[in-house]
Amino acid sequence: MKPVLRSARWFEPDTMRGFSHRSRIRQLGFSREDFLGKPVIAILNTWSEINPCHYHLRERAEAVKRGVWQGGGFPVEIPALSITETYMKPSPMLYRNLLAIETEEILRSLPVDGAVLMGGCDKTTPGLLMGAISMNLPSIFLPAGPMLRGNWNGQALGSGTDLWKFWTERCAGSIDAETWEQMEGGIARSAGHCMTMGTASTMTAVAEAIGLTLPGASSIPAPDSNHVRMAMATGRRIVDMVWEQQTPSTLLNEHSFDNGITACMAMGGSTNAIIHLVALAGRRGFALPLERFDTIAARTPVLADIRPSGRFLMEDLYYAGGLRALLERIRDLLHPDCFTVSGKTLGENIQGARVINDEVIRPMDQPVSAQGGTAVLRGNLAPGGAIIKPSAADPKLLRHRGQAVVFDSMAELEQRVHDPDLDVTPDSVLVLRNTGPLGGPGMPEWGMLPIPKKLLDRGVRDMVRLSDARMSGTAYGTCVLHIAPESYIGGPLALVHSGDWIELDVPGRRLELDVPEGELQRRKEEWRPPPPRYTRGYGALCAESVTQANLGCDFDFLHAGGETSEPDIF
Ligand code: FES
User: Fold this and answer.
1) What is the pLDDT of residues 385-436, one digit of tens each?
2) pTM of the full predicted structure?
3) 44 and 118 in contact (C-beta within 8 Å)?
4) What is the Cα–Cα distance from 71 to 554, expressed in whole angstroms?
5) 159 in contact with ligand 1, CB cutoff 6 A
């Protein structure tokens, strides 16, 4: 027997309100038979002209609508906050939770039975999914898809990764202005999200691996006609999901999250995924300790040879067989019995997927690196934990002892880091603080601190760098990130002085400040909290409620257990 549709509460009663709800749909030019008795599907579209990663989504929503009509549903496209990684300041991360709230409340307050979530630029994937998990209506995610490879002078350019790399060369004086301008015009050639293994490619792959997209959806480049077909199939499928009452809570469990982490590791995924996965699991009602990432990383080889850890780009991954082929290759590391939005298990979704190019998706015995791309560090500098991506670091620096050079803010760093008189050597440890969830605010991606120019001139290209910030998934270097608790609230990072010895031991998973306990205690007593960043508005709400990096930076009141009731309709 078919379930009673949620939207029927709005549309079916023979009441004044029922009349009003029906008449307003008819105002759009539809007849009663177009929507009555059909699943109403919200297409949450994060299209915006200020978000080039999503500029095809308005057109793609039309394909989703075609699919919904074909499936027997009634589509309604609804705009949602477009978090654009490139432009949103002080940090797009500050707004992930706003999109999550918006998603949840749009779905709760409107007469909808299911949702297609359209996004891909870094924070849009977790924001949409967090809201949908909390609302728990049948929901399916349609990834925006990666943009095409960049091209300059016949050379493939990767978003972010090659920007950082060539900017370093530009600072070193080895790239002239004309070449730089040519690169600017060639690095982003089509709609779609960053095509390196940044946060966008990582999180869309994670969404697929935890079971919230149709099989293969995360790998298709945005301009490919297969992306249009995937959009239509997604529209058709959500209608069936409504009738099957397949909600996030029926799909997501600890095993599906293990699949998401495993996919992230095998892809050499972004460290940002850790924060987002912890937040997503929290919305589903369970804790994901950082050590889970370390455990899974230790048993998962990096097979995707994608920048920044590898050589290729997402378009190459698609032609090599895509995520399905990669997951089939690591099937033994997955829980293939987890159900997905396709109505089948993950194991069925990837069955028979073939790797077409072993250079891009490496065989198990020839990985990019034998272990996953993430290590969790603990120690007196990071009692709540810290993260490093060893696969993107200089192996020689993974065990390192050096003296701190401390910057209290990004502004101070910008001012001093290239000063020829800066007291710094290649062995120094650069420390940036006040860049965490509250201090940043919003944990900006400043964790790949620039190498001082005087060291660049000597050929230095990597150093140990510490911060409570995040780092773009497209970035690289020996950068210790997400140090918790953050310095802005008095975490141990706040107590470091320039000249202190710091020890990084990635194989031993340790990060230590070599200062006697008594001296640290004295510094702690002297420490005074900085003034609040915001005294009003959304920023003040964030400051009151945001959790630390190891807890997912969600708002504590959204992370909380319990249920929010359905709206009364009078
Ligand atoms: Fe949108 Fe990178 S800027 S994904």
Assistant:
1) 999 988 788 999 999 999 999 999 999 999 999 999 999 999 999 999 999 9
2) 0.96
3) yes
4) 35
5) yes
Question: What is the position in ligand 1's atom list of the atom closest to the CA of 120?
Answer: 4
The domains located in the chain, with CATH, are 39-148+190-350 (3.40.50.2300), 151-184 (no CATH), 375-530 (3.50.30.80)
CA of 86 to the centre of ligand 1 (A): 7
Query: What's the length of the chain?
Result: 570
Question: Is residue 321 scored above 90 in pLDDT?
Answer: yes
Burial class (CB in 10 A: 0-12, 13-18, 19+), 117: buried
- By the 10 Å C-beta count (0-12 exposed, 13-18 middle, 19+ buried), 217 is classed as buried
Nearest Cα residue to atom 1 of ligand 1: 121
Cβ 100 vs Cβ 130: under 8 Å: yes
The amino acid sitting at 514 is: D
Collapsing DSSP states into helix, strand and coil, what is residue 175?
A: coil
* Nearest atom (ligand 1) to Cα of 54: 1
Cβ–Cβ < 8 Å for 511, 480: yes
For residue 85 and ligand 1, the question of a CB distance below 6 A is answered with: yes
pLDDT tens per residue across span 238-279: 999 999 999 999 999 999 999 999 999 999 999 999 999 999
Nearest ligand 1 atom to alpha carbon 160: 2
Contact in structure between 80 and 216 (CB atoms under 8 Å)? no
Residue % of the chain over a pLDDT of 70: 100
121 lines ligand 1 (CB under 6 A): yes
Tokens found for residue 342: 């396709």
From CA 205, how far away is CA 322, in angstroms rounded? 10
Query: Over the stretch 459-476, which tens digit does the pLDDT of each residue have?
Result: 999 999 999 999 987 778
Q: d(Cα 214, Cα 116) in Å, to the nearest integer?
A: 11
Ligand 1 close to Cβ of residue 86 (< 6 A): yes
Which of 121, 148, 307 to mutate for ligand 1's pocket (most ligand atoms within 8 Å of CB)? 121
Q: Give the H or E element holding residue 330.
A: none
Nearest alpha carbon, ligand 1 atom 3: 85
Ligand 1: centre distance to CA 473 (Å): 10
When pLDDT is cut at 50, 70 and 90, the band that residue 373 belongs to is confident
**What is residue 560's predicted lDDT score, i.e. its pLDDT?**
66
Closest residue by Cα to atom 2, ligand 1, is 194
> DSSP code of 524?
H
Which residue has 């199939």 as its token pair?
233
**Triad 315, 350, 204: Cα angle to 5°:** 45
Contacts of 355 (CB under 8 A, 6+ apart): 320, 321, 325, 326, 328, 329, 361
pLDDT above 90 covers a percentage of the chain that reads 91
C-alpha 233/C-alpha 64 separation (Å) is 8
